[in-house]
């Protein structure tokens, strides 16, 4: 689990401080149903605004532009993942638990469909990516409601209508154990929405254990007691090739340092020379993906809709 909310204690929310970073030893009461007269905000909580200089605003704007264009080596991968999540969103309803919430990048996608968005995150995974980030997030941001381990979710049985898990299961050494816990907190008839990778470089090391075929993820979920409604490929052979080529160009020609978790820092001198080729590769393979969209034996990953049956 590697995505972030320092929670404030109130009637609808678990106190992250009360759980600390250890496994919870008791169940937290299920959240009360939202009443029609209660306005429930499922959107991403915002950090307090601070005054920024023109230079700072310009830098932030350019950074956002770079992230959302083919000049970002992860643009093609992010494009298909966000599209997959958007296709999952209409299946969500009621109270939703996001396991591995991170910075809530998809909160606005689910806002029209859910009454309450609760996010949990595993502190060890966050600190592995950025040492000390847990304390900073807890004190300054509002991304994560509860810090906990997915193997022992601190909620009562049948607490949620929907469970969301985006690119998390590959990071769990014993996914069956966590899936059993996920099924426990999901209401009978509730939906499980999952995405998993199929072709992806190793990342978030050392917490990277699996890649999934459609047959593999279906078997895994069915063994945990879920009924699988649909398994959708994310992208196709051409699109997944484009993501790998873009990342190969970045890591081979544009990198100045490799980090313990598998991530890299780009060279300020070589990256500008490589980035145009990265953009060209991603645009080309996205175009080829649109022309060859039926070739899905190799793809970036899969999006899954499943449910907890009433008769378990």
Search tags:
10 helices, 312 residues, Rossmann fold, seven-stranded mixed beta sheet, two-stranded antiparallel ribbon, disordered N terminus, alpha/beta
Description:
The protein is of the alpha/beta class and 312 residues long. The chain has a domain of 183 residues: Vaccinia Virus protein VP39 (Rossmann fold). The protein has ten helices and nine strands. The protein has a seven-stranded mixed beta sheet, with helices on both faces. Helix 7 links the parallel strand 4 and strand 5. Helix 9 runs antiparallel to helix 10. 41% of the residues are buried.
What is the string of helix and strand elements? HHHEHEHHEEHEHEHEEHE
Kindly state the mean pLDDT as a whole number? 80
By CATH, the architecture of the domain at 66-236 and 296-307 is named: 3-Layer(aba) Sandwich
Distinct helical segment count: 10
Relevant CATH superfamily of the domain at 66-236 and 296-307:
Vaccinia Virus protein VP39
User: Quick one: biggest sheet?
Assistant: 7 strands, mixed
Strand content: 15-25%
Radius of gyration: 20 Å
Secondary structural class: alpha/beta
- Ranges with pLDDT <50 over ≥5 residues? 1-51
CATH topology of the domain at 66-236 and 296-307: Rossmann fold
Shape: globular
- Give the total of beta strands: 9
What is the highest CATH level, the class of the domain at 66-236 and 296-307? Alpha Beta
| Helix percentage | 25-40%
Strand order of the largest sheet: 3-2-1-4-5-9-6
Report how far apart the termini are: 27 Å
């Amino acid at each position: 689990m590697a995505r972030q909310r320092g929670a404030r204690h109130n009637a609808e929310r678990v106190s992250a401080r009360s759980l600390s970073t250890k496994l919870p030893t008791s169940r937290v009461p299920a959240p009360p149903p939202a009443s029609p007269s209660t306005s429930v905000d499922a959107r991403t909580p915002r950090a307090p605004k601070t005054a920024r200089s023109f230079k700072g605003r310009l830098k932030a704007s350019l950074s956002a532009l770079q992230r959302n264009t083919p000049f970002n080596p992860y643009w093609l991968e992010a494009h298909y993942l966000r599209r997959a999540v958007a296709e999952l969103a209409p299946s969500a309803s009621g109270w939703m638990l996001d396991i591995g919430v991170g910075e809530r990048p998809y909160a606005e996608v689910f806002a029209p469909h859910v009454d309450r968005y609760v996010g949990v995150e595993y502190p060890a995974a966050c600190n592995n990516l950025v040492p000390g980030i847990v304390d900073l997030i807890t004190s300054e941001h509002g991304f994560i409601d509860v810090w906990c381990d997915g193997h022992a979710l601190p909620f009562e049985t049948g607490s949620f209508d929907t469970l969301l898990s985006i690119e998390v299961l590959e990071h769990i050494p014993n996914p069956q154990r966590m899936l059993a816990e996920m099924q426990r907190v999901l209401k009978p008839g509730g939906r499980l929405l999952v995405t998993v990778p199929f072709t992806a470089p190793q990342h978030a090391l050392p917490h990277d254990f699996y890649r999934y075929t459609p047959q593999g993820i279906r078997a895994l979920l069915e063994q945990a007691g879920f009924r699988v409604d649909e398994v959708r490929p994310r992208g196709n052979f051409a699109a997944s090739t484009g993501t790998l080529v873009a990342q190969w160009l970045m890591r081979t020609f544009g990198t100045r340092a490799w980090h313990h978790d598998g991530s890299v820092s780009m060279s300020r001198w070589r990256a500008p020379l490589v980035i145009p080729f990265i953009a060209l590769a991603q645009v080309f393979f996205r175009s080829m993906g649109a022309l060859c969209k039926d070739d899905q034996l190799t793809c970036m990953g899969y999006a899954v809709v499943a449910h907890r049956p009433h008769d378990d």
